[in-house]
Amino acid sequence: AQELRFGNYVFGPVVMRALYVLNDPALALKLFKDEKYAGFFDQLTSYQILGDLLFERGHYADVRQVFDLVKSRQVQGGRYPKHSITLTFAACHKENTPEAFQYAMDLWKELNAVGHVPMRKATAYAAALALNQNQPGIALEIVGTVTKGNYVTIRQLKILALLAMDRLEDIVPIFRLVLEIGGPLERKQTFCREVIAKVETAIGATKTELP
């Protein structure tokens, strides 16, 4: 791949952008995987463009495969680029299969083992995937790693996980905390209509009086 470089100019991202415009994920993936061109595409930008192309074309399993290559090659000196991790969790969420779920959970454990804190969006994708795979306990554990639980997406996922576990009594404090927040400088907290509807349905289906 060295002979394909011209001075300090890097052509990997240029080629990937061209393939992106041409909408040719098969050729882009083939070139990226080819060991002959490993150094040629040895930039995170090249991976991001390829990952976006594969994701947009619905090739979610290939996104996982490419991320494994990025880790093994340690592209630009890192095994766990944050944006690449987020895209990989997003692909697993879209794929929503037992295999994708297992991959995502293995990756989550791997990141925890090395002390890497994923971006909040990646955490949300991982938790949402766990919910889709009927694993609310795991979803609750994942969102629990976010230090600030007042983020809208994290709050909704936590409520959905508690609902799936029939823990209605633990949902009330979340709503109460949001309703009690006030003041002109406080940012208004919100809930999705779909989440509120599910809570109302769950409450209506139970005879238990909530505090």
From TrEMBL:
It comes from the Eukaryota. GO terms for cellular component: mitochondrion. One of its GO terms (molecular function) is RNA binding. One of its GO terms (biological process) is mitochondrion organization. This is Pentatricopeptide repeat-containing protein 2, mitochondrial. It comes from Culex pipiens (House mosquito).
